[in-house]
Automatic annotation (TrEMBL):
Membrane topology (UniProt): Multi-pass membrane protein
Protein name: Tripartite ATP-independent periplasmic transporters DctQ component domain-containing protein
A biological-process GO annotation: C4-dicarboxylate transport
Subcellular location: Cell inner membrane
Transmembrane segments: 12-35, 47-66, 87-108, 128-145
Protein keywords: Cell inner membrane, Cell membrane, Membrane, Transmembrane, Transmembrane helix, Transport
Residue span(s) of domain Tripartite ATP-independent periplasmic transporters DctQ component: 23-153
Annotated organism of origin: bioreactor metagenome
Gene Ontology MF term list: transmembrane transporter activity
């Protein structure tokens, strides 16, 4: 768990930022090159696509680290009273853990199914394009499961406090 925590707090942001900067730089350089010489780099589209994919998926995992970091539709949950709101949020988080875990496994299978195929210009295995799916959902599963554990501890504490109030 400490490894996940360290990677999540440092490496994921660095990877997402580095791939974004690389993608922007390659596209910018290719536009300038095409404008000045009329030629473009054959491999720039692949590098930009890889950078985009890694930025999006790893960036989503970074956003998932904070509660409310990802876009959510909470209009129904907010209609409930406060205590039911917390329970509904917990149920949604548990469902999110299950969905993210399934998508992690499916992302891994998808990435491994493309391991024998190579990209055209760079000759990289297609796994490079697909593995961010599994990595991203693995971290999303971890972060959401951590949130579920925090919610359960909060429920336990609130229940103990309510039990103490009922006795008095």
């Amino acid at each position: 768990m400490k490894l996940f925590r360290w990677i999540g707090s440092h490496i994921l942001e660095a990877v997402s930022g580095a791939t974004f900067i690389t993608m922007i730089s390659v596209v910018f350089f290719n536009v300038i090159l095409r404008f000045t010489t009329g030629r473009s780099l054959v491999w720039s589209e692949e590098v930009a696509a890889i950078g985009f994919i890694w930025t999006i998926f790893i960036g989503a995992a970074v956003c998932c680290k904070e509660r409310g970091g990802l876009i959510s539709v909470d209009i129904l949950i907010n209609l409930f009273p406060s205590k039911m709101n917390k329970a509904a949020t917990l149920i949604v988080d548990i469902a999110q853990v299950a969905i993210c875990a399934v998508l992690c496994v499916l992302g891994w299978k998808f990435a491994m199914s493309a391991a024998n195929k190579a990209s055209l210009s760079l000759q990289l295995p297609y796994t490079v394009y697909d593995i961010p799916i599994a990595i991203s959902f693995a971290f999303m599963t971890y972060y959401t499961a951590k949130r579920v554990a925090e919610d359960l501890r909060a429920f336990k504490t609130a229940a103990a406090e309510n039990e103490g109030e009922d006795v008095e």
